Task: structure prediction
Amino acid sequence: MNIAVIGDSACSAEEAKLAETVGELLAQRGATVICGGLGGVMEAVCRGAKSSDGLTVGILPGGEASSANPWIDIPVVTGMGEARNALVVKSARAVIAVGGGYGTLSEIAYALKNRIPVIGLNTWSFSRSGSEDDSIIRVQSAIEAVEKATCLARGCTNCDTASLRSQ
Result:
């Protein structure tokens, strides 16, 4: 089960802690963490995953594997710059967005365009024609994000948090 975690390369301490917890919880559920492979949220999620013996994949923008953060197990060198954002999300069954800047926004758009569910922790919100667009599944905690992402990645149809906790 591949889950992408996306977010800014320069994140707040709160976002780093959320991402690290997300990584740890994903690894405990046997998910492979896919990210952009650099710093910030990407580094924190990988650090968390490795703390629970998880597998991490970094889809790197540049041409050198050495640019990957130290918690990446499998660096994928693309030389594609930010165009690699499409590869990050297309490699996953679900996406968890933690905070994020415009690069994260592009990844969210790629995921939604490709019908890959996006779970949001303190991330972007949208409106369309003056009405709120609820395409991003909003959650309030790392555990809720991981529960929803793993449920959706498995193809479950009833992924509300109350039903997940009773399973």
Observations:
- The first strand starts at residue 2 and ends at 7.
- The chain has one domain: 2-166.
